[in-house]
What we know:
By secondary structure, chain A is of the alpha/beta class.
Amino acid sequence: MTxxxxxxxxxxxxxxxxxxxxxxxxxxxxxxxxxxxxRVSGDGSGTxxxxxxxxxxxxxxxxxxxxxxxxxxxxxxxxxxxVIDGDLFVVLSxxxxxIVGDDIEQVVxxxxxxxxxxxxxxxxxxxxxxxxxxxxxxxxxxxxYLTRLPKIEKIKGLVNIWGPVPSHDPYWLGDFRELENLVxxxxxxxxxxxxxxxxxxxxxxxxxxxxxxxxxxxVGLSNMELxxxxxxxxxxxxxxxxxxxxxxxxFLRAVAGFAGLDPEPVETIIARHEEEYYYYIERSxxxxxxxxxxxxxxxxxTTSSRALAVAKFLINDFGLMPNKxxxxxxxxxxxQERIAGYFKNFNYRIKAEVVFSTDGYLIHKQIEEEYFAGxxxxxxxxxxKQIVKKLSGNFLCVSTPFQQKxxxxxxxxxxxxxxxxxxxxxxxxxxxxx
Amino acid sequence: MAIDVKSKLCGxxxxxxxxxxxxxxxxxxxxxxxxxxxxxxxxxxxFSQASACAxxxxxxxxxxxxxxxxVHHGPSGCAxxxxxxxxxxxxxxxxxxxxxxxxxxxxxxxxADTVFxxxxxxxxxxxxxxxxxxxxxxxxxxxxxxxIIGEDLEGIIEDVRDIxxxxxxxIHCEGFKSQIWASGFDATYHAILKYIVKPPQKKTxxxxxxxxxxxxxxxxxxxxxxxxxxxGLEPTFLLAASTVKELEHLPEATASITTCSTLSSYLGxxxxxxxxxxxxxSLQPHGITGYEDLACQLSKVVGxxxxxEAFLQKERNVYLPGIEKIKEQLTDKRVMIAMGPNLGAxxxxxxxxxxxxxxxxxxxxFDKQYDDGTRPQALQYLIDHSxxxxxxxVNHLQNFEFMNILNTIKPDIFVSRHPDSAIWAMxxxxxxYCVYDEYNVFGYKGxxxxxxxxxxxxxxxxxxxxxxxxxxxPYTDWWMRQKPDAFLLxx
Lengths: 434, 491
């Protein structure tokens, strides 16, 4: 069978450099070609404390391909420590240096007494996607860094939150902040490694957490297992990124239940949120349901995490019906059956068929063939814009490649996120004749 | 030295024309070195930051063509270039052209592919891509992986050409083969010259404008059409929103001109060498001198110097008084420039037209010559006419080096061209301006706009100062105290 990636919605394992960059003052060191860092620089993440062209890189040339690049990496690494003001250095290998057989772990082992942690992760592009690469970076941080910290007592109520994959997803940052807010409301202390001013201080607290909370269908599961075996930390695997009242309330109950919290105050928190949520919904309900152009059926063309979040919201919270859900991040085979199962237990036993595909062309063909009982709603990436136009449907761009609007800190997660989702989706009502 | 459009590879700029990515000296020093010794030799670095590779330039350029497909033979990350598609859709849409047969696919090479090769899958993907989109030509983009494992891209093209009936052209843009991303421009133009271009049937009044965009910003497109109309000529904008049919007819043009000779030299010289299309070796049309030089040299080709002079005089009457006023206020303002070699030399000249004092010019790489052995015109003009000498470096997009220089000389403004460059000056409180679009300083009109913008940026520093108070550079104090060329190795 032809292996074709048509309209790529993910990048290669080196995209895990974004996971490193999301840890404030952590420095990815590329042992790769000169263009790799730019290729995997994420979607609209632009600059920051560090940006693509500030990242140490061995800029591999023909010489290293012929004679090996370990010497060059040694130079780059030792001078990175002198030039770059960082707290943690993560060497990432690319395709070329893996094929020529450079031993990056050997080189990195020479920097163990420099006063700054230096670790190595094998992330050649041909070995996997940026989502798998994300797991490999977390894995390396646990094995090569966290296990070497002095052992301290666990902190009651401290919860590590994992799930959103930094930078490749335009809403990752806002999503983390909303998850933190929800967890904090329960009286727990959220600990997120990624984003502004968290950095190595929060990374160091990872082994001290009472439990890990993974909000993702599959990315990070292997890391949760490793944290469990390494530090004895239990974890709650909650596959659904919660959008809107129905899912946010379910999320709060699940986390509170896992943490063994008293349900009564939790219900008070939920009631207050739902009251506020439906105040706004009630004011705008006619916009949603009394118009000529809004969709009644939808498909998602996005990552399994985003697709599940959107499907749960649109079905369980908002009463729409699903067509096929296209999961595009090259989901590893071992997770596919379980993930398909997540789409089989919506309210009223509604089910959605899932299609695991990296082929944008075939996805669009199938969308064209499906019956949407009116204008289709397609929730996906910018690659879906043309097909939606062709079908006179409604479109919401939620995942990479994005290029649709500027996202600074907003999110669709939580109660407020659900309202924002509706604002963005139903803006379409005013953009066509109604 | 000449361009052989029939050869399999065009080779890198390093090997063909001795281009370099590391240098530290002055304008006059490098001028003397290229005049006497012939070539400043490359100084390598023992610390470097991620730059850019040839495949990005090569395939993003090729992806500008409306009715082609690109099949990238590499792992998924390489094919992130496909994300340029929505932007080019917007461009084509804006000028009313169709892009529905464009596609960017990838063979998504895996670990097994690196061991066993994946040439059969590549063949299938090329055919499948054709069957899906029916493009007018297909480019096969090489990658580091396809290059290292020795995939024979040429080996499949006859087969797939027979099946699809369209030109199938490999672009050899393997990232490790050149440190100079502009080698990627050459690789794409080589593929166009070798596989797409057809021998001329007649001469036309077209002018090949080899640039990055189609002149959409500030509607420069209309200004260019008006300018060429004076000479009875019409533009073919390359490669943005162009078509395979336009490319086939490139040899029929009256002349080729360019907004950037770093970008265009291979195509311009190739068309001249193989088909006799004059490549106008003027300054580029930035600022007053550059605009007039291009206009005059092009008008000579068609013998309409008088008509052009009359047209320019009308424009001068409109714009020069405003430019003079701005010049009064910009005179003696101190500036640092960081750009590609040719645009940097052109913009330096424009800034000197405003009376500004250049404190430092850094080029992302350095071409001492082009493929016909000629010196880059804007560089030679600057060497010959700059009122003063200044420090000059070749930088390879090394942020740590130019931030060190900026922090030392603290100019009134930093003018750059590359995403994520000007904003770094702003982080240390220096106004920065990214000359993002190639037509930014086009003609008298653009020169006036450019000068006014610089003046405003120097006056209202509010955002720059606010930003600089709240961020810090990712560099150690130690580094900021070193000489900027501390990591350039001696030859």
